[in-house]
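Repro:
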Amino acid sequence: FGHLRSHGITIIQAHPHRMKNENSSPNPDYVDGFELNFCIRKENNNEMTLALAREHNLPLTVGSDCHRPEDVGVSATLSEEKIESIEQYLELVFERKLIFSVGQGI
Protein backbone atom coordinates (compact mmCIF):
# COMPACT_ATOMS: atom_id res chain seq x y z
CA PHE A 1 0.00 0.00 0.00
CA GLY A 2 2.86 2.38 0.79
CA HIS A 3 4.23 1.78 -2.70
CA LEU A 4 0.96 3.04 -4.21
CA ARG A 5 1.01 6.16 -2.05
CA SER A 6 4.60 6.90 -3.08
CA HIS A 7 3.26 7.19 -6.65
CA GLY A 8 0.43 9.52 -5.65
CA ILE A 9 -2.30 6.89 -5.89
CA THR A 10 -5.35 7.35 -3.65
CA ILE A 11 -7.68 4.42 -2.95
CA ILE A 12 -11.31 5.11 -2.05
CA GLN A 13 -13.14 1.79 -1.78
CA ALA A 14 -16.56 1.88 -3.41
CA HIS A 15 -19.55 0.52 -1.44
CA PRO A 16 -17.38 -1.71 0.79
CA HIS A 17 -20.28 -3.35 2.63
CA ARG A 18 -22.57 -4.13 -0.31
CA MET A 19 -22.11 -7.85 0.29
CA LYS A 20 -22.80 -8.53 3.95
CA ASN A 21 -20.58 -11.48 4.89
CA GLU A 22 -17.28 -11.98 6.66
CA ASN A 23 -15.39 -12.56 3.40
CA SER A 24 -16.22 -9.08 2.10
CA SER A 25 -15.16 -7.02 5.09
CA PRO A 26 -13.03 -4.09 3.94
CA ASN A 27 -9.58 -3.67 5.45
CA PRO A 28 -9.07 -0.03 6.46
CA ASP A 29 -5.30 -0.56 6.46
CA TYR A 30 -5.29 -0.73 2.64
CA VAL A 31 -7.50 2.22 1.69
CA ASP A 32 -7.47 5.99 2.04
CA GLY A 33 -11.25 6.26 2.45
CA PHE A 34 -14.64 4.73 1.72
CA GLU A 35 -17.59 5.56 -0.50
CA LEU A 36 -21.09 5.67 0.91
CA ASN A 37 -23.31 4.44 -1.90
CA PHE A 38 -26.95 5.37 -2.33
CA CYS A 39 -27.98 3.20 -5.27
CA ILE A 40 -31.71 2.73 -4.73
CA ARG A 41 -31.68 -0.82 -6.11
CA LYS A 42 -29.03 -2.26 -3.75
CA GLU A 43 -28.55 -2.69 -0.01
CA ASN A 44 -25.22 -0.99 0.63
CA ASN A 45 -25.13 -1.20 4.44
CA ASN A 46 -23.90 2.39 4.62
CA GLU A 47 -24.25 2.41 8.41
CA MET A 48 -21.49 -0.24 8.60
CA THR A 49 -19.26 1.80 6.27
CA LEU A 50 -19.87 5.00 8.23
CA ALA A 51 -19.01 3.27 11.53
CA LEU A 52 -15.80 1.79 10.10
CA ALA A 53 -14.71 5.14 8.63
CA ARG A 54 -15.31 6.88 11.95
CA GLU A 55 -13.48 4.15 13.87
CA HIS A 56 -10.39 4.54 11.66
CA ASN A 57 -10.71 8.28 10.98
CA LEU A 58 -11.02 7.77 7.23
CA PRO A 59 -12.74 10.26 4.90
CA LEU A 60 -15.88 9.48 2.95
CA THR A 61 -17.22 10.18 -0.51
CA VAL A 62 -20.73 9.49 -1.83
CA GLY A 63 -22.02 7.92 -5.01
CA SER A 64 -25.26 6.77 -6.60
CA ASP A 65 -23.89 4.01 -8.88
CA CYS A 66 -25.75 5.72 -11.69
CA HIS A 67 -26.21 3.01 -14.32
CA ARG A 68 -29.90 3.67 -15.09
CA PRO A 69 -31.95 6.84 -15.57
CA GLU A 70 -33.77 6.31 -12.26
CA ASP A 71 -30.40 6.45 -10.44
CA VAL A 72 -29.75 10.06 -11.51
CA GLY A 73 -30.04 12.55 -8.68
CA VAL A 74 -29.92 10.06 -5.82
CA SER A 75 -26.82 11.61 -4.25
CA ALA A 76 -24.39 14.41 -4.87
CA THR A 77 -21.07 15.67 -3.58
CA LEU A 78 -21.05 19.44 -3.26
CA SER A 79 -18.37 21.99 -2.49
CA GLU A 80 -18.48 25.62 -1.44
CA GLU A 81 -15.62 26.30 -3.85
CA LYS A 82 -15.26 25.52 -7.54
CA ILE A 83 -13.24 22.34 -7.94
CA GLU A 84 -10.76 22.70 -10.77
CA SER A 85 -8.49 19.68 -10.38
CA ILE A 86 -8.39 16.16 -8.97
CA GLU A 87 -5.74 17.35 -6.53
CA GLN A 88 -8.08 20.03 -5.21
CA TYR A 89 -10.92 17.50 -4.95
CA LEU A 90 -8.74 15.07 -2.96
CA GLU A 91 -7.60 17.89 -0.69
CA LEU A 92 -11.26 18.66 0.06
CA VAL A 93 -11.96 14.95 0.67
CA PHE A 94 -9.13 14.62 3.18
CA GLU A 95 -9.94 17.93 4.87
CA ARG A 96 -13.60 16.79 5.12
CA LYS A 97 -14.80 19.96 3.41
CA LEU A 98 -17.24 18.34 0.99
CA ILE A 99 -20.98 18.39 1.49
CA PHE A 100 -23.02 15.26 0.80
CA SER A 101 -26.60 15.51 -0.38
CA VAL A 102 -28.78 12.42 -0.48
CA GLY A 103 -32.33 11.96 -1.74
CA GLN A 104 -34.41 11.66 -4.90
CA GLY A 105 -34.35 14.59 -7.28
CA ILE A 106 -31.35 16.49 -5.96
